[in-house]
Write a structure and sequence with these properties.
24% of the residues lie in helices and 30% in strands. With 933 residues, it is α+β, with helices and mostly antiparallel strands. The strands form eight sheets. It has a 15-stranded antiparallel β-sheet that branches. Strands 17-18-19-20-29-26-25-22 form an eight-stranded antiparallel β-sheet, with no helix packed on it. A six-stranded antiparallel β-sheet has the order 15-21-28-27-24-23, with no helix packed on it. Strand 6 and strand 7 form a beta hairpin. Helix 5 packs across helix 7.
Length: 933
């Protein structure tokens, strides 16, 4: 066993440190001088690297020219307290309040607001007033009317810090080009700006919140949040590449070292210790640690070892060590407990930290943290069939960050993991061939750590890769997410069901996103303009923005960091498993809505039709625990330019304008965001049609079959544009356009008679898998839902019988069910089944078919084949099968791992001479009942 197994990463680093080079050697973060010649050669031969360097030269050229004409041109654009030289900064919670005091030099201005949303544009560097330090504020242009005006810093969002970011990025670019080319002009250009900023920060104190609110413990030196101190990377990069130049010029670097140490201390002492902040802070600490010399070089002993210790091994009140932070991952499924967009970028951050450290130690640091590699591949379970991530919470439909694969590939190549490298190369090649990724460097991380070229010999298509890396169902309890998928290519359908658990979650109850016809037809809304903006707090993060059910118009709870998951009661197949039976996936989840103390339950299934085009069944139960007057509303938002409604006889409903759905009438504020509100009332089953029209394309339709109820109110509204959709998940014509939605209102509980819908997506002119849907109940068993889906041929029908729980009973002529759900596909004029699917079932009878469990409720599928029936079960069961006219007993064959392990004849039932019986004593994924020779 390797010695490294017994050593902490930090101790291993210290043991390896003597091999890192001579004390004080720079650069060393991205590369060392001894590798310079090889790097220069790669610039000449690798086109994307050469393009990066040339772009940097071209970008800097105009600023170099301006600097040559006026040596103070760039430095004068820094956002500093040029005249006042204030050394103290005061905040009023999330906004800049004022500054005061005095320093011997101009000091760095603090950011304007934690809230990045602002009515003003960030100016070009050319438009900034040189040495501006006016008591009237900042001179900026409005976004709405393009007029310039003086603005208080607190109204400018992040503009102040962003200006300094841009300027210091130019400085780091110049530092890099000095190292690459040896041209002194780049260093001369960068040096005065670097030291003006460093000295200005050295003489300025950390901010103080006058309210002593929570803001006091999250502020950085330059920004309102320690996780946004990006300027540290530019400063450290500049120092690393210019270090020898500074030494040659006899520059005093004491202030620089002190500023780096202060920045590190601020990051350690402030922050939020139980979410992604630990990792974003750790990345900055890693940069600071690696640019500093060892502890013994400084009187305060705060050098490389000190900051690496606080990055990897030692937790403080506000900054958990990396090894402790990683414990929040779900070790079973590899999912980080935040919304998908944040989760995948946490992976990126971790890979960057590990890559930086490994560049110093060369000891395969990735192997020390296997959960990171697991997380990279687990993230594929977030993907819609189009390759874009789900949009629950503050997420947006984007591709997985290619950087995650690039950095994995770099590690695999460095340490000879060739087989895994081929997988990653294939993934990246697919992204490139699909036009989703252009391989180029946009920062120094990519420039120095990406491999020069990808292998080209292992191309496949994206659908095949996703099929290998995803499963029909995936459950992540630590984010309350259940995904189910079915079909391929144009027939792909996916439903993502989510509650509210973990960070960056929304108040959405049990919500869904629905993918079909190559788009996320039923999207979530994403986040608003900012987390502090009224649009986000009132609409985007609240119930009305989601595909869910709202009780009494007021369902709500705390968003962002939410602890309101659903309970997964039943599902098929089991998460991350592939079942032999592939015609059905489903989930049944339950939830307590805390604002109204309401019990809710959602059953969502995908069923494959004989045309291979699936449809979706959605049954949502909701009732207040306290009896009395109540209201329940089913919300569904879908892409489209139009929404119309028809009766079961095909007549289109006329809708009238309404002023209902309003906070003035007691509904939540989010209702006020709906426009063009119209309604009609009917007790009948209806059909809703969302239509997407694209140029030179047949219309994309979502037909929704909706169960009726006495005096049920149906609303058509237009909601704000979804901020989750992108050009990869919606037509470009519909991005930033109002999103149509329907709302089904019941002025009573929706439990015994729940909301029941069938989603029927298809392309106009292509096969529609459904010809009709009928909803009904059983008088004696009112909670039982009967859904009859007549398929395209009008000869085949799916009979769906759904109960509220496993212990419920449904009974009618020739039919008995004690259990959750059964789906029977059969010919309309015959009792012969095409398949029988049961789940959460204790006892089932249908004509001469019967299934009885031995101990606990089971999932069983029986599918007709040319030879007889294919059977799959997850618990011991006894199955009764009709005996054919030839009275021949079927042969049961049992398989394990693809091999026949047992066979026997069925026996005649003692209670019914027209039925034969077989017993399955345990779970079988592959059992065959042969009816023919």
């Amino acid at each position: 066993m390797s010695l490294k197994v017994f050593l902490t990463p930090l101790l291993w680093f210290f043991l390896c440190y003597p091999a890192l080079g001579q004390h004080g050697e720079h650069p060393r973060i991205y590369i060392k001088d001894q590798s310079r010649s090889d790097f220069i050669k790669s610039i000449e031969t690798v086109s994307w690297k050469k393009a990066f360097v040339e772009e940097k030269k071209e970008r800097l050229a105009k600023y170099i020219e301006l600097w040559e004409e006026d040596p103070e041109w760039l430095v004068s654009r820094l956002q500093m307290n040029w005249n006042t030289k204030h050394n103290k900064v005061f905040l009023n919670e999330g906004d800049f309040s004022h500054s005061e005091g005095t320093a011997p030099v101009p000091t760095v201005r603090f950011s304007g607001s934690r809230d990045w949303a602002t009515d003003y544009k960030s100016p070009k560097l050319e438009d900034i007033i040189p040495y501006s330090d006016d008591p009237k504020g900042i001179y900026l242009e409005r976004k709405d009317n393009q007029k310039k005006e003086w603005v208080a810093p607190s109204e400018t969002g992040n503009i102040i810090e962003k200006i300094n970011d841009r300027i210091l990025e130019l400085v780091s670019d110049a530092a890099f080009l000095y190292w690459v080319t040896g041209e002194k002009k780049y260093a001369d250009f960068a040096s005065p700006v670097f030291f003006t900023y460093i000295d200005g920060m050295y003489h300025r104190e950390a901010p103080i919140d006058i309210e002593n609110s929570g803001q006091q413990r999250i502020s950085g030196l330059a920004t309102f949040e320690v996780i946004h101190e990006r300027i540290v990377v530019s400063l450290v990069t500049s120092y690393d590449f210019l270090h020898d130049y500074f030494k040659d010029k006899n520059k005093n670097l004491d202030n620089t070292i002190t500023v780096f140490q202060r920045w590190g201390d601020q990051i350690i002492v402030n922050g939020i210790p139980d979410n992604n902040w630990n990792l974003f802070q750790a990345r900055f600490l890693t940069y600071i640690a690696l640019v500093l010399d060892d502890n013994s070089s400084y009187k305060n002993k705060k050098g490389r070892e000190y900051f690496l210790k606080h990055t990897f091994d030692v937790s403080t009140e506000r900054q958990l060590a990396l090894k402790e932070s990683l414990l929040v991952y779900d070790a079973e499924n590899g999912i980080w407990p935040e919304s998908a967009s944040y989760s995948v970028h946490v992976i990126t951050t971790l890979l960057r930290i590990i890559t930086l450290l490994d560049n110093a130690t060369n000891t395969n640091e990735l192997a020390t943290y296997p959960i990171v590699e697991k997380a990279v591949f687990a993230a594929f379970q977030y993907l819609f069939p189009s390759g874009y991530i789900v949009g629950f919470g503050d997420s947006k439909h984007s591709i997985l960050p290619p950087e995650n694969f690039e950095l994995l590939l770099a590690n695999y190549k460095k340490y000879g993991t060739s087989e895994k490298g081929k997988i990653i190369s294939t993934l990246l090649n697919e992204l490139i061939s699909n036009g989703q990724y252009t391989r180029e460097a946009s920062n120094y991380f990519e420039l120095f750590f990406y491999v020069d070229a990808l292998e080209k010999d292992s191309l496949s298509n994206q659908g095949e890769t996703l099929e290998k890396l995803t499963s029909p169902t995936f459950y992540a309890p630590n984010v309350s997410l259940f995904n189910q998928r079915m079909g391929s290519d144009d027939n792909s359908v996916m439903v993502s069901t989510f509650g509210s658990f973990g960070n960056h979650a929304h108040a959405n109850g049990i919500a869904i996103e629905l993918f079909a016809n190559n788009y996320v037809l039923g999207p979530d809304m994403g986040r608003g303009p900012s987390y502090w903006h009224p649009h986000h707090r009132e609409y985007f993060s609240r119930f009305p923005a989601h595909n869910t059910v709202i009780v009494d118009g007021i369902s709500d709870y705390y968003a962002m960091r939410s602890y309101h998951p659903f309970k997964l009661d039943y599902s098929f197949p089991k998460s991350e498993e592939n079942a032999t039976f592939d015609k059905v996936t489903f989930s049944k989840v339950s939830f307590l809505e805390p604002k109204t103390i309401s019990k809710q339950q959602r059953f969502t299934a995908i069923v494959k039709s004989p045309t291979e085009k699936p449809y979706v069944v959605d049954v949502f139960r909701s009732k207040r625990q306290q009896e009395g007057k109540q209201k329940h509303e089913y919300f569904y938002h879908n892409l489209g330019q139009s929404l119309t409604f028809k009766s079961s006889k095909g007549k289109e409903f006329a809708l009238s304008l309404t002023d209902q759905l309003s906070s003035k009438l007691g509904d939540a504020k989010g209702y006020d965001y709906f426009k063009d509100k119209k309604k009609f009332v009917t007790s009948d089953d209806i059909q809703a049609f969302f239509r997407i029209t694209e140029k030179n394309q047949p219309d994309n339709l979502m037909k929704v079959w909706i169960k009726g109820d006495e005096k049920q109110q149906i609303y058509s509204v237009n909601g704000p544009p979804s901020k989750a959709i992108t050009s990869g998940t919606a037509p470009k014509e519909l991005i930033n356009e109002p999103l149509p939605a329907f709302i089904i209102k019941r002025e009573k509980a929706a439990w015994e008679n729940p909301f029941a819908l069938v989603f029927n997506p298809y392309i106009e002119g292509n096969e529609n898998p459904i010809s009709n849907v009928a909803f009904s109940t059983i008088e004696k068993y009112p909670t039982t839902q009967l859904i009859e889906v007549e398929l395209k041929d009008k000869k085949t029908v799916d009979h769906i019988t759904l109960n509220a729980s496993v212990s419920d009973i449904a009974e009618r002529k020739y039919f008995y069910q004690k259990g959750l759900v059964s789906i029977i596909r059969k010919l309309k004029e015959s009792n012969e089944i095409r398949f029988l699917f049961l789940s959460g079932m204790e006892k089932f009878e249908y004509h001469d078919w019967s299934i009885i469990t031995s101990v606990e409720a089971a999932t069983v599928s029986i599918e007709l084949t040319e030879e007889g029936y294919q059977i799959e079960n997850d618990k011991p069961v006894t199955i009764g099968i009709p005996i054919g006219k030839d009275r021949k007993m079927a042969e049961l064959q049992l398989f394990e791992d693809g091999k026949l392990v047992s066979s026997r004849k069925a026996v005649v039932s003692r209670s019914n001479p027209n039925k034969m019986k077989i017993k399955l004593s345990k779970a079988y994924s592959n059992a065959k009942l042969l009816l023919k020779e």
